[in-house]
Amino acid sequence: MYRYEFLNLINLKNFRRLVNKDYEFTKLQHKFLDEYENLPFIMKLFRYKNILLLKENEKYIGYMWVTRYEFKSYKINRIILENNYDIKLYTGFFNKFPVGAYFEIEGTFEQEELIMLERLGFKKFELLYEMKKEILQEYNISLEDNLQLKLFEKGKDEELRKDIQNKIFKAKGRADIEICDIVFEENQEYYIENASYFLMHEDKAIGYGQLIKEYENLYIVNLGVIPEFRGKAYSSFILRKLINIAISMGYKDIFLKCNEKNIAALTIYKKHEFEIISKYKMLGFTKTNKEKEII
Q1: N or C terminus: which one in the chain shows less Cβ crowding within 10 Å?
Q2: Domains (ranges, CATH) in the chain?
Q3: Sheet of 51-56: strands edge to edge?
Q4: Does the predicted model carry a pTM greater than 0.85?
Q5: Res 171 pLDDT > 70
Q6: Rounded CA separation 282/128 (Å)
Q7: Which residues pair with 67 in a beta bridge?
Q8: pLDDT score, position 136
Q9: 274, exposed or middle or buried, with CB in 10 Å at 0-12, 13-18, 19+?
């Protein structure tokens, strides 16, 4: 008999056992687990639903660990079953989430893993480069007369960010975000206050970018300008501002991720001495009513 359980104080030791046997569970993820165990009880309650365990009779045989980054959007950090590629058992993990939930997973997958993910409904939509820059000194930012950088103001600029971010990424196939997604993000541990900026052309927002934390590292995300202002390297101004903020925070390195097909962005990043450190696939999946309950 199979049973799915969200992480709790009772099965935590079983989760650690699974993690200790999982050779791909990185040192940073182990650090996350150690920190989790030291959290106050009330904080643990908020994280329980990030980790779902599968139990066969009295033995725990697998888990799925996700991070929710928008209201109904999740990044899968790890999904694994011990010596088992039964598609029904993998499907059972997703049955614990609402219809319409969107999942992303990224990595360098073995062929059997890709087959399993494709059978679940995941589709490959991009190859990503992870890039890193050693930051040694601040940039001197000289803006054109009609441009200015505007700090995102929490509680005031959510609608502006929604509009500009949807315009930037509309043509790139990303789902539109809502204000509730932004408010949700503002309450997550990865969110950094005073590290999000708009690029303004006169009184109009034409670009956006922000910093977030991912474990011990600092990442530039959601960086771009709206289509009618592309080709002018305007995103460089936001990029340099975010790098300067990283320096002020005491970081020596900064990271970002970029689609292999985004030649314009890659050119700007390489000009700013970002180097490719890894390549991996990203796959996406939206839960529908088609998945059948097996438990």
Answers
A1: N
A2: 2-127+282-286 (3.40.630.30), 136-251 (3.40.630.30)
A3: 2-6, 51-56, 59-70, 73-81, 102-107, 275-286, 123-134, 253-259, 217-225, 204-214, 191-201, 147-151
A4: no
A5: no
A6: 7
A7: 75
A8: 87
A9: buried
